[in-house]
Amino acid sequence: MTVYVKQPEINVREKLNELGINSSLPLDKMPSGSIVQVQHATFFTRSTTNSTSFVESDIELYVTPKYESSEIFIHVSTSGNNNNTVGHDLFYTIFRTKDFNETDNVDVNLGNSTYGMGGLRTNQAASGTNNRLEAPIVIGAVDKPRSIERLKYVVRFRSESTSSVVEMPMLVGQNSLILAMEIRR
To answer: Taking a C-beta distance cutoff of 8 angstroms, is the pair 169, 80 a contact?
Structure first.
């Protein structure tokens, strides 16, 4: 048996007029789940490190949330390499820092404290070839900062060993992108 349900037609223009909205929907009237702002930045510089602690790359973005209850979706697209070294890995993550006072910054690692949000690993040497592992890196995270202060999101990365230099992105001049979307909750 098929049941047909007919919903009354809605005149969107009329409903917007009822809300007192003439041309665009004000942010405070946007429903939960709406994207209220998008920020992005592109970088063409390469960062290198042999540190075993997470260090900042050049991939960073500043966002000032409009609502304390918002979620921030972060997307990063870049690449990296472990520079010809077997068993020496590259790990990467996203950190959030409140940017309102240089002496009162609070760093929050959005990934695992040791392994971050992912990594590049070469486990075994291929006979007669070099072992440089170059790979694309895509990172996605949802943050709930509970703040309307200016925030800094930055990709940090580290090497598994101080004897191995790792690089992000893998080539000088290669494009890296970081994007943030504030989602109203």
So the answer is: yes
Count the neighbouring beta carbons within 10 Å of the beta carbon of residue 122.
Answer: 18
The low-confidence residues of the chain, meaning pLDDT below 70, are 12-13, 16, 19-25, 84-87, 99-105, 123-131
**Is the CB of residue 60 less than 8 Å from the CB of residue 154?**
yes
Q: Catalogue all structural domains in the chain, each as residue range(s) with its CATH number.
A: 31-183 (2.60.120.760)
- E strand or H helix at 13: helix 12-18
Residue type, 26: P
Strand, helix or coil for residue 95: strand
Q: CB 119: neighbour CB atoms within 10 A?
A: 19
What is the reported pTM? 0.80
C-alpha separations of 64 from 29, 54, 71 in Å: 19, 24, 12
Residue 130 contacts residue 84 (beta carbons within 8 Å): yes
